[in-house]
Design brief:
The chain has 8 helices and 10 strands. By secondary structure, the protein is an alpha+beta fold.
């Protein structure tokens, strides 16, 4: 998005017109709301990874409402309306602090840097000893040999622990030993240069501990080392923090005014680094491929559009509020078979279609940033109804460095994480039974295989192989669930 504050006018001496001032005000507000959306998304992911799904879902609800505000602001901007009356509010959540990237029964130790090593130590390395589960049976890890006098080692190792009363006693009484040794290359045996010890009792009340230790030979300092120890949660007490988030509220009259001009901006302007839309969590789970219905949806107040809403074909989850077009015509692109041929006058029941309540018929408040049509790319968000398939897709994107992901892939990663979180919430709340879930998986696996067969007929063997791989992942999940 263009930064108005960093883009001066061509001639500062010429006063800005009323229209320029109006547009700049809209763009500044949209940018501010977009930044708040980013913060909400980051915090929701952190809470989800730490296991606090309840507060994560609360933030997701606020996230959805603020994205609707962005849509409304963009529509008002294009209808020559003045900047609406708005206000900001703050809400505070008391959340538990955890290291979500560490397992419940893991202790992570990092040796970051060694310095001030004597020059006569030719082949130094560091040995870390954790006297757990006992002093007689400790766990050890060593670094590679490095070049003195200093080196950025960055050794990261995960020790296994057990969350028992004995572990609390261990944290109270024991220490980690970090020893500097010199390696002899001719087999004479390694010898110790100096040792350092680190008390672990602060981890009874904290999830991380970082210290700079001194290697000592008696009283002589023979080097320094930086050590960091992290746990998923403290040894005894729970660590909590207050999370304060901002929300924007538009005047109700401004929202109503935006509904009078849906044609002015039928497709919302994508904001900078547009973020994915989370699924509606408080509604009954329905098929991800719903057939068109003969009955029109019940009128619902929405900031998206007042144009009568029509259901989209099963091949796409995105609802485009454009009555004059719903994507390419059937003659311009092949449609994977889903329960038989479709006619424009008589809807055909999808293999996994489920009757839904009328609130589901509303148009999506914002379009997804990723095109999920199976005919336009090798990725279809509608297919992501399987927990194992979601984990596989997330793993494929997460293993790559963040700076190497495209904007579309970054959005897709967040979108997949949100969808997995929503699926877990549905299962935990009892809104989705195991029988219904497995039934949907069977239908989706069959659909993917039919789509792969159609792609082979079109000569697109690469995409066909990918669809078969996804079908196999779903079928494996079904098989494991039934064992």
């Amino acid at each position: 998005m263009r930064d108005i504050e960093e883009t001066p006018s061509e001639d500062p001496s010429v006063p800005k017109t009323h229209e320029q001032i109006r547009l700049e005000a809209f763009e500044r507000l949209v940018k501010e709301v977009t930044q708040a959306v980013k913060i909400h998304t980051i915090e929701a992911i952190k809470l989800r990874e730490s296991g606090d799904k309840h507060n994560a879902l609360k933030i997701m609800k606020d996230l959805k409402e603020m994205k609707e505000v962005i849509v409304t602001l963009n529509r008002l901007k294009d209808t020559d309306s003045p900047l609406p009356v708005f206000s900001w509010s703050t809400s505070t959540l008391n959340v538990e602090v955890r290291n979500g990237d560490i397992g419940e029964d893991e202790m992570e130790v990092r040796i970051a840097k060694c310095s001030e090593i004597p020059s006569d130590v030719t082949h130094p390395y560091v040995l870390v000893t954790l006297p757990y589960p006992s002093t007689e049976n400790p766990q050890k890890v060593r670094t590679a040999v490095f070049q003195p006098p200093e080196a950025d080692i960055d050794l990261l190792h995960t020790f296994q622990i057990q969350r028992k009363k004995s572990f609390q006693i261990f944290l109270e009484r024991k220490k980690i030993t970090v020893e500097l040794l010199n390696s002899r290359l001719l087999g004479w045996g390694d010898y110790s240069i100096g040792k350092a010890e680190m008390k672990l009792n602060p981890l009874l009340d904290d999830i991380s501990l970082t210290q700079s230790l001194e290697f000592k030979d008696g009283r002589k300092v023979v080097g320094k080392v930086e050590v960091e120890v992290r746990l998923n949660r403290p040894g005894i007490n729970t660590q909590r923090r207050d999370l304060t988030l901002r929300r924007i509220h538009l005047d109700s009259e401004s929202e109503a005014a935006s509904q009078k001009h849906p044609e002015a901006h039928s497709t919302p302007i994508p904001v900078e680094e547009d973020l994915p839309r989370e699924p509606p969590l408080k509604k009954r789970i329905t098929s991800l491929n719903e057939p068109p219905l003969n009955t029109p949806p019940s009128p619902v107040a929405s900031t998206q559009s007042t144009v009568p809403q029509l259901m989209t074909p099963p091949s796409s989850k995105q609802h485009q509020p454009q009555p004059q077009q719903f994507g390419p015509s059937p003659s311009s692109r092949p449609v994977p078979p889903k329960g038989g041929p479709k006619t424009p006058t008589k809807p055909v029941q999808s293999p996994i279609a489920v009757k839904v309540e009328s609130p589901i018929h509303r148009a999506s408040p914002t379009p997804m940033a990723v095109d999920s049509s199976p005919n336009s790319s090798d990725f279809n968000m509608d297919d992501m109804i399987s927990n194992d398939l979601l984990e596989w897709e997330i793993s494929n994107l997460s293993k790559r460095p963040t700076d190497q992901l495209t904007e579309e892939e970054s959005v897709r990663l967040v979108q997949l994480q949100m969808k997995k979180m929503a699926l877990e919430a549905m299962v935990e709340s009892g809104k989705l039974s195991m029988d219904d879930y497995l039934s949907r998986l069977r239908s989706k696996a069959e659909e993917l295989r039919l789509r792969a067969k159609a792609l082979v007929g079109q000569g697109d063997k690469k995409r066909a192989a990918l669809e078969l791989r996804r079908a196999k992942i779903i079928e494996n999940e079904i098989q494991v669930s039934q064992e």
